[in-house]
Known about the structure:
The protein folds into 4 domains: 3-163, Glutaredoxin (3-Layer(aba) Sandwich), CATH 3.40.30; 175-317 and 407-593, Glycosyltransferase (Alpha/alpha barrel); 323-403, no CATH class; 597-677, 3-Layer(aba) Sandwich (Glutaredoxin), CATH 3.40.30.10.
Amino acid sequence: MNRLAGEKSPYLLQHAENPVDWYPWGEEAFRKAEAERKPIFLSIGYSTCHWCHVMEHESFEDAEVAAALNGSFVSIKVDREERPDIDHIYMSACQAATGSGGWPLSIFMGPDRKPFFAGTYFPKTPRLGSPGFLDVLRQVASLWAERRADLGKVGEEITRAIGRETRGEGKVLDGGVIERAYRQLDQAFDPAWGGFGGAPKFPTPHNINFLLRYHKRHPDSRAAGMAEKTLQAMRAGGMFDQVGFGFHRYSVDSRWAVPHFEKMLYDQALLALAYTDAFLASGKPVYASVAAEIFEYVTRDMKDPGGAFYSAEDADSEGREGLFYTWTPEEIASILGKDEGELFCRAYGITKAGNFEAGRSIPHVPASFEDLAREIGMDISELTPRLESGRRKVLAAREGRAHPAKDDKVLLAWNGLMIAALARGAQALGDMSHAALARNAADFLLGRMRDSNGRLLRRYRRGEAAGPGFADDYAFLIWGLIELYETVFDVRYLAEAVELQERMAGIFSDEAGGFFFTGEGNEDMIVRNRVVQDGALPSSNSVAALNLLRLGALTGNTRFEEQADRLMRSFAGQVALFPSAYTHFLQAVDFATGPVREIIIAGDASEHVTREMIEAVHGAYLPNRAVLLKEASGSAGLSRIAPMTEGIDGGPAAYVCEGFQCKEPVSDPAALRSMLRE
């Protein structure tokens, strides 16, 4: 066992028996590199990364590679999910140096931590145009011995490059930048299969949410069509687990057919939010069903006994990618019998030839069940329950297979996203069991993932919470708490959101506006960056901008809106360069553009009329709204946070304000629904 044996990260523990003399990130490694005048090899990945596993098996478990690393380098292994600050810096370096990036991330740097060479996956020996890792190690060691000063200059140049940032210079973003983002998405849209760009194709749920917002303002646009085409194609493809539900990470092809099989908690949360918004915007029940399926998967397979949620599931099992999720017709027939097996295989595209490795098939939906019913002369009311019965039996049989590894650490940021998804899902679907799950997760994070000073902690695993939180931990949890308050109207969650937002400002704020990713208590890195581009996850600044605007509307405290204005001005120049890369940020711009509907419902939530009014708000697609419930009990706490509720008593009644004007209160749920449709 090497030095990683004492770590809690599942990814680091996967490498604890490597012959490589790995160090966790820390002063011990840097002191050794300095004392022995050696370069550092930094390897960054995560536990469910397929190519991380491949590089481990080919190189890090190999005695020859280990000898080269141990002799000439100090080797450091980092879990990108526990230390996103390290990953952000060195991924930026890789992208600056090579024009691309990914995981495993392979960085060579001096003891000063400044990178001079970067790459991703390297095979042990040269293959298909890729240099061999052994050759790379020998060349870097030779350069370090002979041209160390030149490598130092390269490190300085890369460090300066990743430290540069375009500032907004006080610009105000408006509808023009939103229009440009829409046009860019329209140009990149794949009309055949949905999504944006070609293979590999990623889900980018914030693009969907942005398009739904855009369509609300521009109902004659193609925005809703692009969003719905993408959502439908993803659900029908192999990227969706047709047997056990939930989405895989991305599709390696343009048709959503062959996925990269790992499952990430953040994808489930963000996609559930996208399908929920699509249901509210379109009224089509199919989107609500997909959101419910995601919640079923997460609840069944990803829930920690304490109420929070695990991080991910691997792509591999028994050493093969996708084996757990793929089938042959013979396997299906052995579970369902000949006739039901043939029907199931036809419905889910499972064939003798297969559509994956070794003749195996990834279940997908090649034609709608309605079309299939017409083809075989069966009523859809008979076909649907037969297929659902078959799916449940196949799922039960799949439980007997060797499961992919589960990354069972709890990441605060990703749990914040899941709380937001469950809470908004509870509103839209009218299923308060989802709200109960969100409550449990929020209580877990607030109770177990803060230090003695009330500061958030990044990771929890096996009874230990560790690592000071980053800007995304604060921003994503605040988002979840806002959604949770607007679902269950427990003032405690709104108060926590306000307190955390104020704490975030104290820890991470940049005087020019916006938030640094690292703050007081986080380790100092070679550069201190503000993250704003929306990638696989929305950025901390994008989420914070919308949080600030929503908290301003909920509390009436203009300080939050002023902070949001400074943040958006600060990033305006950067966002304006290519706005479609910032679609979550632009949702904040859309909110700021207004109008915002501020809705206060007065009355006891247990009363029928009050409940109907709440359901009217929850069931409407109102992306730019703030909703409060003023009940007789507990009203003092709400009045302290939101003073504008002070004089509102009695009920049931709904008070709706928009554009700095308030309408006459209404006490009839039907009248409220009519008002919200205007």
